[in-house]
Predict the structure of GNAT family N-acetyltransferase.
Amino acid sequence: MIKLETERLIIRDHIGEDINSLHGLISNNEAMHYLPEIRTNTLDESKENLYEAIKEANLENRTKFFFGIIIKETNEYVGEMGYTVIIDSEEGKVVNLGYFILPKFWGKGFVTEAAREVISYAFSQEDIIKIETGCIAENVGSEKVMKKLGMIKEGEFKQHILLNSKLLDRVEYRLLKKEWFKLYRGYT
C-alpha cells in the first residue's frame, strides 16, 4: 500500500472503508462538473470505481495509481489524486496526472500540496520521466495548480472537448523528471 504524507495531508491507496467518502465526491455534480465521464449516479457505480482502484493497487505491474487525500489532523476526506501510465518505454514511463476534490476544500492549497508529494513519489520511486495533465481552459483553478507546480504549458486546443453540448478549449501541461528536480532540488 502506498501512503505518502505532507505537513497537512495523507495521500494513500484506497481501502474499502473509503466508499462513502468517494461516493460523496464522485456523485457530486459541482465537484465533477468538468469530469462527467467519471461522475456516478448510484452507490453501486461508486463501488465499482473504488474496487477498480483497490484492484489496481494490488497488481504487480500497476498502471493506475489512484489515491485518496485525507487531512491528517481531522481524518477528513478531501478528494482524489492520481496518475495513469499512458506510455511505458525503455526510456521510462509517461503518465497522466489527475485530481478532483470536494468543493468545500477548493482554494485551500490541498491539491497543490498533494500533487507535489505525488509527483515527487512518481519521479523518485517509479520509472517515470514525464507527467502530463490538462483541463478545460475555463477551469482556472485547475490550471492554477499546474502553474504552481511549475508545469510547462505545451498546448492549447480550441473547441476540443465536448461538455454539456458545447465545444470548449483545453490546455495541456507537462513536467519532465529533470525539470522537477531542477525546480525542487532537495524536495523528496
Notes: The chain has one domain: 3-183. The first helix runs from residue 19 to 26. The mean pLDDT is 95.
